[in-house]
Amino acid sequence: MTIDPTDCDDRLLQAVLFDMDGTLVDTEPYWIAAEYALVESYGGTWTDEDARSLIGNALPTSAVYIRDRGGVPLPPDEIVERLLDEVIAAARRAMPWRPGAVALLTQLAERGVPCALVTMSYARLADTLTALLPAGTFATVVTGDQVADGKPHPEAYLTAAERIGVDPAYCVAIEDSNTGIASAEAAGCVVVAVPHHVPIPPGAGRTLVQSLVDLDPDGLEEIVRSRRLSVRAAR
Fold it and tell me: Given Cys at both, which of 15, 78, 95, 101 links 171, Cβ 3.0 to 4.6 Å?
């Protein structure tokens, strides 16, 4: 799909691609609690620094770290499944939506802007979230168990854009972690960062906001427009 960034009559915002954990929902405390419980059950030691270092990672990568750093004598895939069991149970008790998340999804649906969920969590956790939203909220859902290479590799974001049928350069990716931002930027997306559990440094072509409450479809469209004009000016 090719769009002239100077044509103000064309909608430049082709899709919005949302990270899940820490961005749409504040499930990171659930993950951290599950990590502590698992490591301590095997007599290991875990720290908040260890937990923060895993935010945004592919789950198999985190599982290897937990096995090696936390002394958990289990195969990585079993570590992943045990963590998922705990996080899903907690999310079913109370889904911790981030401020503005549901409102922004609703506004984008009303405007007809396709959305995707792009998460390194596995499908069974993503299903727990999507079940609480109106059918069709997400045009596609890309999860960590559907890709060969997890974030920071761009595969997940490229897959989401391909499934929707849009150019990543006209998609906004909304992320809360440096790992996720690296993935989205490598895919060529326009990145909006919403720092939460880890600090996000400024970067070229990157927009930082304090909360999803600060975003709406018109603002996202303008972010894409500004980015495309900057890219054109730099040529």
Answer: 15
* Cα angle, residue 106 at apex, residues 91 and 11 outer, rounded to 5°: 130
Count of C-beta atoms within a 10 Å radius of residue 45? 11
Q: How many CA atoms lie within 13 A of 160 on its CB side?
A: 34
pLDDT digits (tens, 9 = 90+) for 68-120: 999 999 999 999 999 999 999 999 999 999 999 999 999 999 999 999 999 99
Residue pLDDT, tens place only, 113-149: 999 999 999 999 999 999 999 999 999 999 999 999 9
| Contacts (Cβ under 8 Å, ≥6 apart) of 91 | 25, 27, 30, 125, 128, 129
Strand order across the 171-175 sheet: 140-142, 115-118, 15-18, 171-175, 190-193, 206-208
pLDDT number for residue 10? 62
Predicted TM-score (pTM) of the model is 0.89
Domain ranges within the chain, ordered by starting residue: 15-26+97-234, 28-93
pLDDT of residue 233: 79
List the one residue out of 59, 121, 133, 57 whose CA is nearest residue 90.
121
Question: In the CATH hierarchy, which top-level class contains the domain 28-93?
Answer: mainly alpha
C-alpha span between 131 and 142 (Å, rounded): 15
Is residue 62 packed enough to be buried (19+ CB in 10 Å), middle (13-18) or exposed (0-12)? buried
